[in-house]
Design goal:
Two copies of one chain form a homodimer.
Chain A (H helix, E strand, L loop, with lengths): L17 H5 L15 E7 L5 E7 L1 H5 L3 E5 L10 E2 L4 E2 L5 E2 L5 E7 L2 H10 L1 E6 L6 H5 L14 E9 L2 H7 L2 E9 L11 E7 L2 E6 L4 H12 L6 E4 L16 H11 L3 E4 L2 H5 L6 E10 L5 E13 L5 H11 L8 E10 L13 H19 L3 H8 L18 H12 L11 E9 L8 E7 L4 E5 L8 H13 L6 E4 L17 H28 L7 E3 L2 E4 L2 E4 H8 L6 E7 H5 L10 E11 L6 E11 L6 H21 L4 E2 L2 E2 L18 E7 L21 H13 L10 H12 L4
Chain lengths: ~750, ~750
């Protein structure tokens, strides 16, 4: 790659939304008020599965200040199902999980709405429920949906080579079952939406990562053209997949429709937990190797608990087929993955869908194999790790990264001498290499105004990831304008060009590309104006800091625009479709996302507590457009990984979530971080994004759990196959090892 | 011209905003509420000219509910002058006209704000004032501004040929002075604005015809980039020039800045009258002709009373140089025009700036010449009327219309047999041919969404003229989509591409062109997708009703977009700059706007009342994109002309407007309309706009007054040279004629 000189890209510029956020003046959806707005609340099913025999709203409606009580009887004229047939916006006839909205109230204030919920009389007939995949797949289990026999929502399959033959040739075979729990995203901001419906359409102010996905969902529910649905975003206080596509918005809009007034619904954490979560997964994995460590066959059966509704469970299911593979050369494969309905809240998108769950199985199992082979786990990985250009996914895009580079850097940084430290602690390492999806449909416009200020319109939600800063950097670099001259407009689907979504590590790569193309389009137009102004050839013109120069003469972009438009103001618009610049075959994945993690830990044998000493991670980012932001993404992702590795799990008892709050659902705190917590960026400018960038931010979460589980196993000899590795669970395992008869 | 087949353009489609307006659900700025909004009021100078010695706000500030009292002392950090040096947003040191804002209050409600105005103690030293041009130009007159000696704000001059020689060759010379009064626009909606100011910029919701002009003005006052000022429009209840550029918005924004909260100011009619008005004009005109009626020389001195501030007075002044000419061949010309400061509310834009005032002089004088020459006024006009291609303005664009066609049609329709009817009534005819300006800077985007719905972003304000419908028709025609699939977004400068302004007959021609180009750009992209889809050459593809077809196979635009973007949604954006498609040399005017009016009337000799029997008008529209709308524009313009011809005048007494309300300021009512009131559209598809359209809507106001004045003169023998032709004024003239010694 030719070396390119940058002035703005590659620097850790001050965040363009930084001052607004640290001063608290940044507006989130919950900070908004819409004139005449009511406050809404949802009544939720207390049963995991129940027939709704009747709903009597009359007492609730009598309460002064109550404007609307909405039940499924009020959905006339709407299509009440989200994305397909299984997910009504409000329970119809049956409630399918504890927490499903059954009715909704809009009132003058939240207290009154809350009071009204208590006055709605719902007569239920409780039905038998299935909570786990095991429950759901058992013979004779009750069926969640009549159209899904045996509760199979979806299944998918991947095969390569001849697995039987592969295992027959293996010298060692390991076979195990790993459990990954349900996890809640725990965004700082739970789901919040304000909706307003009138004759001209639906407007929703919402905290979402997918403004255009919400538009699509609301348009489908309301049977109206996309142009009549307007989704307006403020800042979003975290998403991590919990805000991918329509969540509470269609129901809030239905409530607003009946109310004839705007309605706001602000969920608390327990309600957000009853909205979406990560898929819990059971992985049955089998791996065969030659004595020298060469992998020869892998078989896996993966069961995803997708909850009551499909959401994107089928996509997650398909994704696990690849994600269980890891970046290793295995000639014979057979993977089956099952998406299973249960009477629980729906599984949905979550940072690296299906990634941590499957890596927990395959990267743990790799170390179990190493133990059997008496090999260093680093050696085993090195032996099987794919080289750049090798096939990872059958018939898919070849690996587009040098995995050894990051691997070596991580090992060096953590001081790898083997899986056991001098003090008897453990070391673990794992990979997270995935196909991030990164769908291509992004569109953006760059507007150069007549005073030289620049406005960017693009649909990426600023969910905390710093996209406003990075996109501004890309445009500032291409257009040669100072960064502070750029203003980013938050997405408003009435005006903002289409973007597929914010997530799946796509924004910098795909939307960034759209913005790069849009800025190049605007740059070409400015160059044309400058050429005309100076009566000089294009090659004679240089652009710098918002000034065009030729032959020692200078003119500002603003002056060029004003002159072009006869001093009447004016504006240059650059347009970019990511799609046009990036179409590749095979297009999936656009790039391979690479995360690597290594841990050093000690285990308190008295309490079972795992104490992390070092955690070193690496991400292959192609080109770090904003290095500090990249590090923040990677360290944040690993922090989330530490959460599900050591602390987090949504616990169901008798069909109910029993820990829906910060006290009972433990997330990592800053003092849970290892003393040494470092991230390494691998940069070879080999990504398809702007300036060689590739997506990141998901890779970092994947290797954490197996790295920790492996270090635990190497240092203590106990292999725990179920997350999280709580002190109690570890202590039990240690105890069981000491007293195997217990 | 080749005949073009249209399916949507040229039909009088239902107005896209029609149902919203007739049901009353259309939102105007006054219907909006912004959360936390205060209500503001302006304290106005009671003196036409006074020094402000002190302002004591302490009592006003003590009133409970008063949040802010703003005086010029609070403008620190702002640039308090609008567009140049003469117009502060709030009086500084001196008040220059009665009604000028001197202080402003923001309070919890309007009543409290009103109460607070009464508690602000302003100590004034009254100064001598000048109200008329005559006052202002008198020797030793007080000067309104220290920088404008003799109160001359601006002057301009036009010369051609040799006027002295021309008059020397003339057989007849007429020389007269005509007076045109101050007129108020009387939009149904007075000026209303809501402003909000925070660290990230200024947002203003306002009733304006120039969203981008207001943006410019606010950015200048606030010393900030254009990108930090956001102007949001709803429907606008009429403008007619009264809402061209920043009016109350900068002051409301300054009030919001000090308040730290949004502030709304809703003016009543008397306040709107103290904001802007049409220039009153004195025209001294001299015209020479040969005995056969051939015009040989014209001289004119034009004095425009521009009030206390320049506003666009200089532009109006320059425009009168051309507008005094009329569409007649006069080889020798000398025109001087003076823009004069006085201590009155500022003159500003008003439907056909400088047009009715100058036509009142030149078209009246033409009939006076005809009377002297004993010629039929139609004959005199026909003799001197320019042919297509002849020069109208020296060195300007040649006449691009056939004036005889409309002239003949009007004469035929009114049944012209001469200027006196069989019953002794009068007939009058006049032309209004002007250079409408129509500046070229318009930009638009057309967004084709993945369900085939279409969104238009353009900056034209819907001020009642029907622009949303016409622009939708243009795009529907070009893109071949049904009209009801199109949604127009109201202008919001945060997102909407730049547009110079709504006015000067430019929107259909210039913005329409931008939209036509944008739609063509989108159409090309759809054709490309269709060619790829069908694997067919572009020529094989036809587009109709949102469907692409080739070889008998069909696909919807939405499906094409979804497939192109890999079924992930998507959007096609078409971009149009009017400028690129239309640049002409000489570029001013882009086209000549043609209006023709003829009247038949009777005069009640007892009361002096003029009773209009017929009014026939013609407009050369090039191509009527929406015929009913064109007729509505022309008839509305003529109705306004009837207003200033017979009823309207802002009356100043002792420096004060004494008739600032609908009772004392008489506007025409429906039963003031002539029994026969017809408009004729001349269509030769010879305009520079879409499909050959050219601007209209201003031409119709120009000929009304001279046509009526001429008919009055022919039927009664009295020539009244001052408008309006009220019964009292006519009666006095009739009386004076009968008793010349009176």
């Amino acid at each position: 790659m030719a070396t390119q000189e940058f002035t703005i890209v590659g620097t850790s510029a001050e965040r363009v939304d930084g001052v607004d956020k640290v001063t608290g003046r940044a507006k989130f959806t919950g900070d908004l008020a819409v004139p005449g707005m009511l406050n809404g609340k949802f009544l939720r099913s207390p049963y995991a599965h129940a027939r709704i025999l009747s709903i009597d709203t009359s007492e609730a409606e009598k309460i002064p200040g109550v404007v609307t009580v909405l039940t499924s009887a009020d959905l006339t004229g709407l299509n009440p199902y989200l994305k397909g047939k299984d997910h009504p916006i409000l329970a119809i006839d049956r409630a399918l999980y504890a927490g499903q909205p059954v009715a909704a109230v809009a009132a003058m204030d939240e207290m009154t709405a809350q009071e009204a919920l208590g006055k709605i009389k719902v007569e239920y007939e409780e039905l038998p429920a299935v909570i786990t995949c095991q429950d759901a797949l058992a013979d004779g289990a009750p069926e969640v949906h009549p159209f899904a026999p045996k509760n199979i929502c979806f299944k998918d399959h991947l095969e390569k080579g001849d697995v039987e033959k592969g295992f027959a040739e293996a010298d060692e075979i390991v076979e195990d079952t790993f459990e990954f729990p349900m996890i809640y995203h725990y965004s700082m901001e739970p789901h919040t939406a304000i909706a307003s419906v009138d004759e001209n359409g639906v407007t929703v102010w919402t905290s979402t990562a997918h403004p255009f996905g919400v538009r699509q969902d609301v348009a489908e529910v309301f049977n109206c053209p996309l142009s009549q649905v307007r989704i307006i975003l403020s800042f979003v206080g975290g998403a991590y997949g919990s805000k991918s596509g329509g969540k509470i918005e269609p129901l809030v809009a239905a409530l607003a429709r009946k109310s004839g007034k705007p309605v706001r619904v602000t969920q608390d954490v327990s309600e957000a937990m009853m909205t979406v979560r990560r898929h819990s997964v059971t992985c049955k994995v089998k791996l065969g190797a030659k004595r020298d460590g060469t992998l020869v066959a892998r078989e896996a059966s993966i069961y995803l608990n997708t909850g009551a509704f499909a959401e994107n469970g089928p996509s997650v299911t398909t994704r696990t087929l690849i994600r269980i593979l890891g970046p290793y050369r295995v000639p014979n494969l057979r993977i089956d993955s099952y998406c299973v309905y249960t009477n629980t809240v729906s599984g949905a998108s979550f940072r690296s869908i299906g990634g941590p769950q499957t890596a927990w199985a395959n990267e743990s199992q790799l170390d179990m194999l190493a133990q059997k082979l008496r090999m260093d786990p680093v050696e085993l990985r090195r032996k099987n790790l794919l080289n750049r250009g090798e096939e990872l996914r059958p018939k898919g895009k070849p690996l587009d990264a040098n995995l050894f580079e990051g691997f070596d850097k991580v090992l060096k940084k953590i001081g790898w001498t083997g899986p056991v430290t001098e003090k008897g602690g453990g070391r673990g390492i794992a990979f997270g290499v995935t196909d991030p999806g990164a769908p291509l449909a992004s569109t953006a416009t760059v507007h150069l105004l007549s005073d030289g200020s620049v406005v960017l319109l693009f649909g990426t939600a600023e969910i905390g990831q710093g996209s406003r800063t990075i996109m501004s950097q890309i445009v500032a670099e291409v257009l040669s304008v100072p960064l502070d001259r750029i203003t980013v407009r938050p997405p408003d689907t009435a005006f903002t060009p289409f973007d597929r979504s914010t997530g799946s590590s796509r924004s910098t790569t795909v939307m960034g590309k759209a913005l790069q193309l849009a800025a190049e389009d605007a740059r070409r137009q400015i160059l044309d104006l400058a050429a005309g102004h100076f009566e000089a050839p294009l090659e004679a013109i240089t652009l710098k800091d918002g000034i065009a120069e030729a032959g020692g003469k200078k003119v500002s972009y603003g002056d060029l625009i004003r002159r072009h438009f006869a001093m009447q103001g004016g504006e240059i618009i650059g347009l970019g479709y990511a799609h046009s610049g990036m179409a590749t075959k095979p297009s999936n994945p656009l790039f391979w996302e690479v995360g690597i993690g290594a841990v050093e830990l000690e285990v308190d044998r008295e309490t079972g507590e795992i104490k992390l000493g070092k955690y070193i991670m690496a991400a292959d980012v192609g080109k770090a457009l904003h290095p500090l932001n990249c590090e923040g993404q990677d360290e944040g992702a690993a922090m989330m990984g530490i959460g599900h590795s050591l602390y987090e799990s949504i616990i169901y008892e008798n069909g109910q979530i029993v820990n829906p709050n910060l006290v009972d659902y433990r997330v990592p705190r800053f003092n849970d971080l290892p003393a040494e917590y470092d991230s390494i960026l691998v940069e070879n400018a080999d990504g398809p994004g702007p300036f060689g960038a590739k997506g990141m931010g998901e890779g970092g979460i994947i290797p954490v759990a197996p790295a920790i589980g492996n270090a635990l196993a190497w240092s203590t000899g106990v292999r725990v196959k179920e997350l999280p590795l709580t002190p109690e669970r570890v202590w039990q395992a240690l105890k069981a090892k000491m007293d195997p008869n217990r």
